[in-house]
Each structure stands twice: as structure tokens, then as C-alpha cells.
Amino acid sequence: MASTLPAADDRDMKTANARRAPWQAFLPLWLMCLPAFLLFVALVLVPLLMTLVLTFYRFDPASGPIAAFQFGNYMEVLSSSYYHTIFLRTFGIAFLVTLLCVAIGTPEAYVLSRMRDPYRSMFLLVILAPLLVSVVVRAFGWSMLLNTNGLVNQAFGLVGLGPYKLEYTTFAIVIALVHVMLPFMVIPVWTALQKLDPQTENAALSLMASPATTLRRIVLPQLTPGILSGSLMVFGLSASAFAIPGLLGGRRLKVAATAVYDEFLGSLNWPLGATIALLLLIANLIVMLTYYRVLERRYTRSLG
After folding, report:
1. For the chain, what are the domain ranges?
2. For every residue of the chain, which 3-state class applies, written as one string?
3. CATH no. of 56-302
4. pLDDT tens-digit map of 142-197
5. What is the pTM of this model?
């Protein structure tokens, strides 16, 4: 009896392999995907490859970039405390913006999911409204609010406070980025809530669980995929943001994106600018992948 089991398994595997379609059957699908793949290669992979090649060039102030295979640009960025400060500021701002978006966007999405139409549609439109306005326009709007004679300082003046220097500070960059990035947190969490069966909450409440316990043990674990995807989007977009840090941070508070801009268009040192951009991409990917792995393990462990 035992000797016939491996033979039966072998027959099942051979039958499955025989039923597997030949590669020619998938050829039309590959041909349909070919235009999109060629567009991806032309618009993403080729520019990245050209940027990578440019990082090994040498810069001469008299003649510009010179083709040469050397690691001087990497050594300059990795060994300079100036660039260390820029990268720490960049990822510190991105982390703080992500944390605030999670703290604000998750309860906001939960309240939104409990609303009924037409109020839900109205509040959803309010949440998505920032995406309908240019980032530059929003940055100028925050600049008018936070400058020395802006509405915020005028409100402080009514109670005998201020004026405070709010523009060209890290606070201005963070608050404006939270305003811009909040929809990218609310929508994934709200989508995850749509998959949540409300009967599970009712079942927990019927078993004498408190609302806080129900929220912590039933709702939050199922929101983890939405929080994870929203956090990754917010962090990546915040770390590579240019318009808001450039307009609200000024020339003093540089982040990685504004440093790349200065090297490309200010100093015309394209190899160094390409090196900063590539290192920003690599550091961003490392942080995001590590964050994803950690949260994915916790989510898997919480669901058993």
C-alpha cells in the first residue's frame, strides 16, 4: 500500500505537467504586454541606467562632465558631513510626515467608513481636493499662511502672541507635506475598511468586549495592509519631494531633492547631482523594503 503512494504521486505530477499549456499559448499575452514593457524600459530603466553611468563621470568646472570611471562622487557624498545632514534631514522629515499621516489619516478613514451618503461623498471630496490643486499652488498657499504677516501670525497677534518665524522652517515643510500626502494615507486605509465585515465587530461586542478592545484586536489588525501601503507611498513621496521643501524650506533647509536640483542647474555638476539622486533612490528603497518586511511579519504573526 505504501509503495503505491509515490507512484500515484508521480502519475499526478505527470498529468499536471501534461495539462500545462506550452509556452506558445502565452505568446499573444506577451505580445500584448510588449508595448507597455518597451515604454517602461524607455521611460524608467534607460534614464536610470544613464543616471548610473553619469555618477562615474568626473566634473571639470571649465569643460563640464568628463567620461571617466571613478568613485570620487560617491566618496564625496558618503564622506561629507554636509550631505549626511541633508540625508538625515530628508528622511527625518519623511518619517515625521508618515507618522503624522498615520495618526491623522487612520482615524479619518475609520470615521469616513462609518458615514453614510451624501456626507461620505462630501467628506471624501474634501479629502481628495488637495490632489486637484498643483503642489506649487499649495506651497504658495502655505507660504502666505505661515509668513510673518500671514493669517497664522495675525491670529497669534489677536491673543498677544508672536509674530513667530514659521516660514522657511522644518515645521512649515512638515505641515505642508502632511496636507499634500494625507489623501495617500486615507484612501488605502479606507479601502481596507471596505473589506472589513462589520459583523466581526458586532460579534466581539456581543461577547462583552469593550469598544477599545474591539478596535485594537479586531479592526486594527485588518487595517495593517492599508496602513502599510499608505505609509510606503507617503514616505517615498515625502523623501523625494521637491516643490514644497524648495519653496517653504528656502535656501538654508536643503533636502536631497533640492540638493540634486542645485547641483544640476546651479553648479552644473551633473555627476555629483546624479550621485545624490541615485543614493537617495537606494536609501529610499532600503528603508521602504525594511519597513515592509517588519510590518508584514507583524501582520502575519497577528493573524496567526
Report:
1. 56-302
2. CCCHHHHHHHHHHHHHHHHCCCHHHHHHHHHHHHHHHHHHHHHHHHHHHHHHHHCCCEEECCCEEECCCCCHHHHHHHHCHHHHHHHHHHHHHHHHHHHHHHHHHHHHHHHHHHCCCCHHHHHHHHHHHHHHCCHHHHHHHHHHHHCCCCHHHHHHHHCCCCCCCCCCCHHHHHHHHHHHHHHHHHHHHHHHHHCCCHHHHHHHHHCCCCHHHHHHHHHHHHHHHHHHHHHHHHHHHHHCCCHHHHHHCCCCCCCHHHHHHHHHHHCCCHHHHHHHHHHHHHHHHHHHHHHHHHHHHHHHHHCC
3. 1.10.3720.10
4. 888 888 888 888 888 888 887 888 888 899 999 999 999 999 998 888 888 877 76
5. 0.81
